[in-house]
């Protein structure tokens, strides 16, 4: 509804191709939203006609089990030894997110993994930013501070036609929006949209 209202207020953009975009966790809702629009099930058939595809940066593709990829990633990037990687595969059987406390070998190997990678701030381990934990935290906090400052800037909000009385103070990742994580993997959405001929740009930054 907001998109349609914006296009109504700015008709000069109606002829432009429309792409849905997002980053990081946006990798979950963006393909789903794009498919809903493509099916004409939300907004209106008009938006469906303008839809060209979607854009994602550093997206995740599934909610649960994502941490199970961290060991393979750490091995591939040279953060852990081949010996530890093979031992983890055998003892943990690919499950590194929920560790069985009765599996002593897996617990021991995961401890070794954590010790080998604890200098990397966890949020960056899949982003290719291999600085110290402290400097990574500083980098993240500086980024959030800059985004908050930009989004709350009066000139920026005026340019975006934001009605200040509707949002108050804008905060990054406030965590106050209630939702249920039930999407599972969005790979089928990617496949379906590709089959339909929609364009996609999926990129990674930070390396």
TrEMBL record:
A Pfam family annotated for this UniProt entry: Peptidase_S10
GO function terms (MF aspect): acyltransferase activity, transferring groups other than amino-acyl groups; serine-type carboxypeptidase activity
UniProt xrefs under InterPro entries: AB_hydrolase_fold, Peptidase_S10
Domain of life: Eukaryota
Record-level GO BP terms: proteolysis; secondary metabolic process
Gene3D superfamilies, per the entry: alpha/beta hydrolase
Family: Belongs to the peptidase S10 family.
Name the record gives this protein: DH200=94 genomic scaffold, scaffold_8624
């Amino acid at each position: 509804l907001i998109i349609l209202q914006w296009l109504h207020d700015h008709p000069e953009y109606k002829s432009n191709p429309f792409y849905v975009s997002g980053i990081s966790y946006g990798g979950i809702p963006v393909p789903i939203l794009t498919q809903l629009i493509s099916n004409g099930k939300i907004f209106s058939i008009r938006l469906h006609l303008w839809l060209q595809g979607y854009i994602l940066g550093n997206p995740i593709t599934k909610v649960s089990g994502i941490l199970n990829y961290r060991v393979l990633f750490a091995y591939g990037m040279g953060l852990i030894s081949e010996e530890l990687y093979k031992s983890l595969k055998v003892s943990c059987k690919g499950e590194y997110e929920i560790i069985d406390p009765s599996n002593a070998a897996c617990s021991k190997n995961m401890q070794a993994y954590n010790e080998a990678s604890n200098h990397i701030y966890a949020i960056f381990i899949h982003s290719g930013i291999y600085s110290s934990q402290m400097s990574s935290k500083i980098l993240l906090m500086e980024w959030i501070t800059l985004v908050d400052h930009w989004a709350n800037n009066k000139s920026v909000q005026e340019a975006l036609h934001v009605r200040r009385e509707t949002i108050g103070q804008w905060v990054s990742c406030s965590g106050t929006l209630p939702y249920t994580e039930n999407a599972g993997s969005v790979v089928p959405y990617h496949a379906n949209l590709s089959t339909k001929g929609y364009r996609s740009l999926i990129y990674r930054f930070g390396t």
